[in-house]
């Protein structure tokens, strides 16, 4: 299509995008963010560590602040963590990101999950911890799984879901029944223990 519209135009190569254009764009946007953050006096951050499908570890730091009466947030960095994610290592990683954006003296509070290494990191950095409500809610919801009646019911429901996901024939029959009953066409959902609403979503799928 590009050739038809403009035969003389040559789109940038993958190498140009990866090594020139995107880094240049990032540099401009980073400077814009740093200029805006230079105008604020106080800020809060959220930090979370996660693992990719390839089992690589990352740490993301997001800053939250007010500017001209508006609440704003910026993802400062998603950084690869190649060392063991102890509390001291996480503290160093968080601090290096904050220093890079000249925010280390402006942060008054941080919201993190209930992981012990995050607790150690915040104590090391001397930041006020504001517990993540979603993680706390998840811990409370996990108590439901410990109930004997719910455990047995979940096992039966989960077995049906796993069978429907693994069987091509069962999936085809499910789609046909949804069509005949004029129901929304969707796949069943398998619950994940670390997500507090996953059990409800699995049950609602039926």
UniProtKB/TrEMBL annotation:
Signal peptide: none
GO cellular component: nucleus
Source domain of life: Eukaryota
Subcellular location: Nucleus
Organism: Zoarces viviparus (Viviparous eelpout)
Coiled-coil ranges from the UniProt annotation: none
Keyword Metal-binding: yes
InterPro entries, alphabetized: RNaseH-like_sf, ZnF_BED_domain_contain
Keywords: Metal-binding, Nucleus, Zinc, Zinc-finger
UniProt protein name: DUF659 domain-containing protein
GO molecular function, one term: zinc ion binding
């Amino acid at each position: 299509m590009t050739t038809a519209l403009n035969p003389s135009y040559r789109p940038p190569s993958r190498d140009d995008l990866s090594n020139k254009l995107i880094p240049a764009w990032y540099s401009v946007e980073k400077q814009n963010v740093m200029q805006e953050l230079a105008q604020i006096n106080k800020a809060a951050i959220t930090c979370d560590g996660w693992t990719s499908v390839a089992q690589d570890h990352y740490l993301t730091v997001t800053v939250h602040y007010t500017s001209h009466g508006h609440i704003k947030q910026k993802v400062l960095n998603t950084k690869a963590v190649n060392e063991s994610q102890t509390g001291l290592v996480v503290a160093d990683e968080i601090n290096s990101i904050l220093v890079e954006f000249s925010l280390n003296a402006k942060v008054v509070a941080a919201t993190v999950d209930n992981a012990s290494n995050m607790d150690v990191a915040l104590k090391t950095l001397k930041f006020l911890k504001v517990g993540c409500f979603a993680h706390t809610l998840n811990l409370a919801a996990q108590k439901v799984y410990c109930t004997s009646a719910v455990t047995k019911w979940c096992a039966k429901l989960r077995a049906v879901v796993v069978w429907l996901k693994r069987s091509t024939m069962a999936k085809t029959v499910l789609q046909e029944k949804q069509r005949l009953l004029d129901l929304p066409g969707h796949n069943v959902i398998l619950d994940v223990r670390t997500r507090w609403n996953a059990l409800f979503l699995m049950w609602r799928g039926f």
